[in-house]
Each structure stands twice: as structure tokens, then as C-alpha cells.
Design goal:
The protein is of the alpha+beta class. The protein contains 14 helices and 4 strands. The chain folds into 2 domains: about 80 residues; about 210 residues, no CATH class.
């Protein structure tokens, strides 16, 4: 299958040269610096980190530049580099309740503890091209500093026992999806790992389908928050937890209706999404799909694509999807010649059968036409 590829080594080498030339573009234009990509294309950097499963803004920026802005290719590059890195250990669970919030909104309560913090968002823009966007913008100082941490909005419902309670202490030790194969049925922790690095566009489509009736999902945006969270580890040689840095995250908790059953009272249920960097659309989509995938657990009918965990989890990975689609560009000469030969044989047999089988009334009809004046 790959003989033709090996036979064209000179052509491939020339193709790589052309790629480098096309990637660089007009040499009269200054080359993009990684700092420019990291600071001014931060949402693209965040997506590459999310689906590349590696939190490193510098490497994500490098991948975007090398891929000439092709996000899927950049994700592939970062994912491939990630496999070369040593694994030193696992961090402690992140405590998002201590998040130093940059943005925090709720679609369920107007007045929430700590207030609505709009932060940096495109939600209130008019989607008009800003031809003078290079002009400096005067930044007004904040009226008051934000609190160090803000209480969760869903705690208001929890206090009235109106939303399901999830005790993290009851969760089993999660598997590492980057080292162990995906096996069905997958538990919720495994599903969330898969969704966290899933393709944003695919998850967005799945989430959209749940809102159009293809799942028992009637969501409300309970809380969406974005900010920095401390990362801690507990080295074996020390025996106690130390802080090694901070990362920016976007967290979303969706509130969904649930009519109860099997001894469970009517209450709201949760859908959860978490993404690296600023990834609000990804986190929201993830939360909607997460809730849809809980249908069996909650005793709901399982009939929609977004509720089928094997369908969703097996097709959400952008690197696998891209590779499987693009492998069609590789030579399939032998396979196609076999199909072509078979089709020619079947076509010839079909033509022969048409000649041999004539309708019973075909000859009388022809004779009747000949004797007519």
C-alpha cells in the first residue's frame, strides 16, 4: 500500500520544501513571534492546549505557527510531542472553589453571591469588523478588586436540597485514559476525560442536538467561571502537598430538570464541563453532553445520538477523526483495483443476464407492430 509513497521520496522532499515556503509566506513580512500568538490569539492557544492535552502556552503557540494556523494540525503536533514527555506523577484534585475569578456568570440567578462578573467576552459585541482595532484602548481601572474566591451558584440550590448532591469522596480512583484503552460502558470520570480533550466542533454539534429534542435535556447555565487555580502535588519523598504553579481554567455547571424516580425525589441534576484556558464554548458543550450521557444512570430513555456513549466517545477525538479521514489521501491502488475488477465482472454478468432474459410478450408485441398499416 505504501510502496508508491516510498517510491516518491524525491517528490515528498520537494513537497516539504514547498510547505516550508508556503508556511513562511512573503519574507518581506516579519515572521510571527510566539509571544504575539500567545498573547493575541489566546483562544486558539487554549483550544490547542485543550485537545492536545498539554497545558503549555509557548508550545501551543509554536504548534499553531508551525501548522500555519490549522488548529487540528497544531493539536496533532502538540499531542505527538506530549507522548515524548516523562510522567513524574499526578497532581492533587483541583479545587475550583478557590479559583481566582476573571469571569463568572449565571443564567439562573440575577443576583448571586459575589455578583455577575462579565470579564473578557464576545457576548456583548456587535460582530462588526474593527478596522481600527490596532489603536490603543484606554483601560478603565476596576471600581473594586474581585474577591479572592467566589461561592458556587449551585450551592444556593444545594442548601434547599433541590439539586443532586455529588460527594467527590465516593468516587473511585479514575483511570488514566492516556495510558489505558477506552472500554465500554465507561464510567463518568472516564467519559469526562474523553470529553475534555474532545473536538470542540463535534461536542458543540452534539450539545446543540440535545437542545433540539434529541435527548431528555432541558438545560440552564447554572454557573460559568473562568480564572486561575493552583496546582498541587504530593511528592513521595516529601509526604506532604506543595504548590507547583497555577493554570487558567474554564468551568461550567449546567442545571437540568429531573422528574425523579426509584426513590429519588424530583430535583435538578448536573452536567459538568472543564477546559484549559479560556474555553467557554467547549466547557458548555461538554457539560450538555455529559448530562445527556447520564441517561442510563438516571433511568431516562436512551434514544438520541448524544446519549449513546460509544458513538460520542469513539468519534469525539479530533486527532483520530482527522487521521482516519485524511488517510484516504494515501495510495489505495491495490484495494481499488480489486474493487474495480469485481465491479467490471458484476457489470458484465448483469449485462449478460439482461440479454438472456426477455419478457414473454416481447415477440408478439413486436410482430403486432409490424403488421399494422
Amino acid at each position: 500500500m505504501y510502496v508508491a509513497v516510498k517510491g516518491g521520496e524525491q517528490a515528498i522532499a520537494r513537497s516539504l520544501e514547498l510547505l516550508a515556503e508556503a508556511r513562511r509566506g512573503d519574507t518581506a513580512v516579519p515572521e510571527l513571534e510566539l509571544a504575539q500568538i500567545r498573547e493575541q490569539l489566546r483562544l486558539g492557544v487554549a483550544r490547542v492546549m485543550q485537545e492536545g492535552s498539554l497545558y503549555d502556552e509557548e508550545l501551543a503557540a509554536l504548534a499553531i505557527r508551525q501548522a500555519a494556523g490549522d488548529m487540528l494540525e497544531a493539536i496533532f503536533l502538540l499531542r505527538a510531542y506530549r507522548t515524548t514527555l516523562p510522567r513524574f506523577g499526578y497532581t492533587e484534585p483541583l479545587d475550583t472553589t478557590t479559583m481566582r475569578v476573571h469571569r463568572r456568570v449565571s443564567g439562573t440567578f440575577k443576583d448571586v453571591p459575589g455578583g455577575q462578573v462579565l470579564g473578557p467576552t464576545y457576548d456583548y459585541t456587535q460582530r462588526l469588523l474593527e478596522f481600527d482595532a490596532t489603536q490603543p484602548v484606554a483601560i478603565q481601572p476596576a471600581d473594586a478588586p474581585l474577591p479572592g474566591c467566589m461561592p458556587r451558584v449551585l450551592d444556593l440550590l444545594d442548601a434547599e436540597a433541590l439539586i443532586e448532591r455529588i460527594d467527590a469522596g465516593d468516587d473511585p480512583e479514575p483511570m488514566d485514559l492516556t495510558r489505558e484503552p477506552l472500554i465500554f460502558p465507561a464510567d463518568r470520570a472516564t467519559r469526562l476525560q474523553n470529553l475534555a480533550r474532545g473536538d470542540e466542533g463535534f461536542l458543540l454539534g452534539m450539545a446543540y442536538s440535545t437542545q433540539r429534542g434529541y435527548a431528555e435535556s432541558h438545560p440552564f447555565a447554572g454557573e460559568i467561571r473562568m480564572g486561575e487555580v493552583d496546582v498541587c502535588v504530593c511528592p513521595e519523598e516529601l509526604g506532604f502537598t506543595i504548590e507547583i504553579g497555577a493554570i487558567k481554567l474554564t468551568e461550567c455547571q449546567m442545571i437540568n430538570q429531573f422528574h425523579g424516580g426509584n426513590g429519588v425525589p424530583p430535583q435538578f441534576t448536573r452536567g459538568y464541563g472543564l477546559s484549559m484556558g479560556e474555553g467557554e464554548r467547549k466547557a458548555m458543550s461538554m457539560a450538555l453532553v455529559d448530562r445527556a450521557l447520564r441517561c442510563d444512570e438516571l433511568g431516562e430513555p436512551n434514544y438520541a445520538p448524544a446519549q449513546n456513549q460509544e458513538f460520542v466517545l469513539s468519534h469525539s477525538d479530533s486527532v483520530e477523526a482527522s487521521g482516519f479521514v485524511q488517510h484516504l489521501k494515501l495510495p489505495h491502488y491495490v484495494d481499488f483495483q480489486a474493487e474495480l475488477s469485481l465491479l467490471r465482472t458484476l457489470s458484465a454478468q448483469h449485462a449478460t443476464a439482461q440479454v438472456d432474459v426477455q419478457p414473454a410478450d416481447a415477440e408478439p408485441a413486436r410482430m403486432a407492430e409490424e403488421v399494422q398499416p
